[in-house]
Each structure stands twice: as C-alpha cells, then as structure tokens.
Design a protein that fits this description.
Blueprint lengths: L1 H19 L2 E4 L4 E3 L4 E3 L1 E5 L3 E3 L2 E3 L2 E4 L3 E3 L2 E2 L3 E4 L3 E3 L4 E2 L3 E4 L3 E3 L4 E2 L3 E5 L2 E2 L15 H4 L12 H24 L1 H13 L1 H23 L5 H33 L6 H16 L5 H25 L10
Parallel strand pairs: 1-4, 2-5, 3-6, 4-7, 5-8, 6-9, 7-10, 8-11, 9-12, 10-13, 11-14, 12-15, 13-16
Antiparallel strand pairs: 16-17
Amino acid sequence: MRAGFMIMLVVLGLADAAGAAGVTMKMNGDIIIPAGTVHEGLAMTMNGRVQVNGTLRGDAVTMNGDIVVSGTVTGSVRTFNGNVTLHRTARVEGDVAAVNGRVQQEAGAVVRGRIAQGSIFRSEPPQSEQPTPPPQPTWRERWRPWSWDWSWPGPVVRVVAAWATVGFIVLTALIALLVPNQLRRIADGLSAMPGQALLAGLGVWVVLPLLAVTLAVSIVGIPALVLMPLTVGLLAVFGFAASSMLLGNRLGDAMRRQTSPVGDTVIGAVVLGVLALIPGVGWLAIFLAVTWGIGGAVLLLAYRVRRPIQPPPSGS
C-alpha cells in the first residue's frame, strides 16, 4: 500500500513536469477538450481516450484508447490499438493513423494529411458512411502462408504489457530524479559520439557471455556471476533512461520549449514505450535504445579512467 502510494506520487509529479513542457499526458483516463476552448500542445493518454470538441493546437495521441474529433486539430491524430472517429464538423490539418484500429470518417470531415489504418505492415482505406465494394484480393493475400500479418495479442497480455511499460517509465523517471547530472553526462556523450556509443553497447553484449563463462570456471568469480544479472539490469535501465532523456530533449528543442531532466526523460520514455507496443519492430527499437545508452555509459567510464588526475594548484 505504501509503495503504491509512492508510485502514485511519482506519476503525478511526472505529469506536472510534462505539463510544464507543454505536454498534457495521462497514464490512465480521458482527455476531453470542450467545445469553444483552445488547448495548446500535445494531448497524450495511455489506457484512455481523447475527445476534441474544441480546438487542439498540437497532436492527439492515445495508446489502448480511441480518439473522437468533432472540432479542430492543427497537428496529427494517431492511436495505437484504438479507433479514430471523425465527425462531420472535424478538421485535422495533419495525418490520421489508427494502428491496429479503424478510422471512421463522416461526410464533411476534412483531413489535410494522409489517412492510414490497420496493422503496422498493411494500411487499409478509411471507413465512410457510403458502403464501398470490397477490393479484389491480390496474389499476396491469396497466398496467406507467405504474408507477414502481425496482430496484437489477447486483452490480458495487452494490459500486462501496458502496465509493464508504465512501470518502466516510472523507474526511468526515478533515476532521473535521483541522479540527473550523471544521466545528463551520458546523454551528452550519446549526442557527441552516437556511433561510438552504439558500437560500445554492442561490444558489451558480445563480452558479457565470455565474462560469464570466465567467472563460472573460477571459484572466486562465482559471487560476481550471481550479481551479473542485477548489474546487467541496472545497466539496461540506465541506458534506457539516458536514451529517453536525449530523445525527450530533442523533442523539446523541436517544440521550442524549456524542459527539465525529469520531463525530458518522461517524454522520451513514453515515445519509446509506444514504439515497444508496435508488433514486430517495437522491441528492436527498445533494444537499440538500451544498447545505445549502455554504450554511452561505458564511454563515460572509459573517459574517466583515462583522464589524468590534475595536480592541486600550488599556493602562492
């Protein structure tokens, strides 16, 4: 009970930090923009819906939720594992996308960008009020065994995956709260040496099995072998947090808004968490982000070891 209360406080603090950055974000619940009102910035919710009856000057994004638009959205409308409904008075200046969902567009609704729906690997035309004849299947669709048709797992797995993503975001934000300066140094290293950091991270995954075998054959190394999973887990969390901080910082610069280290980390972690839920390619993006961040931490440690110790200044 006490731990749940602490996690709730952390989530509320993260929402406040994101709000200061011009981003309205909810881990659970709906975001409703009433008619006649104007909302500035991104509107994002997980396990909830976004309803725009007024004007949204930004993007509308949901994960495991629907989006309903009867007003104006100056950005794009995107949902992962949800549906998009555009009423006849809706106006969207950007794109409309429903990954593993459908787009319902009523007559009179205006979309300036592109409309996509269905799985991440195959787009489908949006539904309209006028029935259209079904398209003829192509030879690829007739030969189903050779088609890559990824679909979302069952509802229980989706809920567990969503809560695991929320927990990982909270954990990375706690790291940003506790050691913001160290995390910032790793993120700066990723920005300065992106290629070297990725190679260093890949090198860590190559060296780890060899190190585990070496420790296993040594009696002295057995205690270190027991602690290796915990060490690798901490490295992975720190790497993910550093990559999230750098990604959130770049998004803040693109929106020309001042953000805090915690706000940067939360925004970047949410984006990476959404990518992780995309079937087929999501976990590859998470693996690269973790590997990249681990490589940045390794480069920072190597730089500190090689840097010569400066003698103290002599008194006058």
